[in-house]
Design brief:
eight-stranded mixed sheet; seven-stranded mixed sheet; 2 domains; alpha+beta; 10 helices; Aminopeptidase; 338 residues; single chain; Nucleoside Triphosphate Pyrophosphohydrolase
Length: 338
């Protein structure tokens, strides 16, 4: 049986906002926040699924026995929420970053204290502490795509998309996000510029993005092409059809950008070592190729409405404008020349 919370650890402050160690006496309040219907509505991880007070107390005790910091968020001495900073234990992230110091940030606030900037300030304090304590990467995990306040809190603290995770029907929210915070971006050392898309930011230094030309041999080489949904299924103009591609986030390694776009746009989880670099160096936009096995599942996101496997001639003819077509031509030449 895990030991009771001892209330040991750090205290962080930003004006009237304080993060202090959580004690056993705090757990009754934590239960009320966790059992709030709105928290349960957005719940995707183990701490905020409905449970009895005894079970929640046992869960927090178990976490406190691991490398973790459990905090109470106070404003002017009033407890208003709970925040956690702990070593990463989710298998999917542990596999991807097995040799790195990765930590996870979690936050929940009492309903009357939401939408006042408290969550943003608390996450900033906790994230800065995590990097100061040696973390190489920090994550906000399992955030529902419908939890707009939660996404805003993390993105305001320079957490960027790592993976969008689709869930089967009946599993709660259809998609959730794992967001990553890298110290170069968090501390303002990574060049940033505006992006017109939903994420609003992208890297300002080169390379600014990546294209992955996906192909299969069946038996001839066929090129995978997405049809973008932004102007409807009948649209055939510029940017209607392209390979998987996207802008790089500040401080994001370019190969991670390529893997993220593959995950988001076609549902393929592949390691960077499977990518073949076609165009790199000082190019503004890098191009990779990837062989996909025949019969591999393709799961599209909301940006695309369909896909096709195109043979010689069709592949280049359908890709416009010139910029993506040039990168595609280089990849096709590399693929078909062996």
């Amino acid at each position: 049986m895990a030991e009771p919370l001892r209330g040991e650890g750090f205290t962080l402050a930003d004006g009237d906002l304080v993060l202090r160690p959580m004690t056993e006496q705090d757990l009754d309040s934590v239960f009320l926040w966790s059992d709030d219907p709105e928290n349960l509505w957005f719940a995707e991880h183990e701490l905020v699924q409905r449970r009895t007070p005894d079970r929640l107390r046992a869960s927090y005790r178990e976490i406190s026995a691991t490398p973790a910091e459990l905090c109470i968020v106070e404003v002017a001495g009033i407890p208003v929420g709970a925040a956690l900073l702990r070593q990463m234990s989710l298998p999917r992230l542990h596999r991807a970053f097995s040799d790195r110091d990765c930590r996870r940030v979690d936050l929940q606030l009492a309903r009357p204290w939401r939408n006042q900037g408290i969550g943003r300030r608390a996450v900033r304090l906790l994230t800065a502490h995590g990097f100061g304590a040696g973390a190489e990467f920090q994550f906000g995990c399992d955030i529902s795509s419908e939890n707009h306040p939660g996404l805003r809190v993390f993105k305001a603290n320079r957490f960027a998309a790592w993976r969008r995770r689709a869930h089967p029907a009946g599993a709660g929210w259809p998609t959730t996000w794992d967001l990553v915070c890298r110290p170069e971006y968090f501390f303002g050392r990574a060049p940033v510029k505006d992006h017109p898309g939903a994420d609003q930011v992208m890297a300002a230094d080169l390379p600014t993005g990546a294209t992955v030309v996906v192909y299969r041999e069946d038996p001839e080489v066929l090129i995978f092409m997405l049809h973008r949904a932004h102007q409807g299924p009948a649209y055939e103009g510029d940017w209607a059809r392209t390979p998987p591609a996207g802008a790089r986030f500040p401080a994001e390694p370019i190969e991670e950008c390529a893997c993220r776009e593959l995950s988001e746009e076609i549902g393929a989880e592949i390691p960077p070592s499977d990518l073949h670099l076609v165009r790199g160096g000082d190019a503004e936009w890098w191009v990779y190729s990837l062989a996909l096995a025949p019969g591999a599942d393709v799961v599209l996101d909301e940006e695309d409405d369909r896909f096709e496997w195109l043979g010689p001639g069709e592949d280049l003819a359908r890709c416009r404008p010139e910029a993506p077509r040039n990168g595609l031509a280089m990849a096709i030449s590399s693929i078909r020349d062996g």
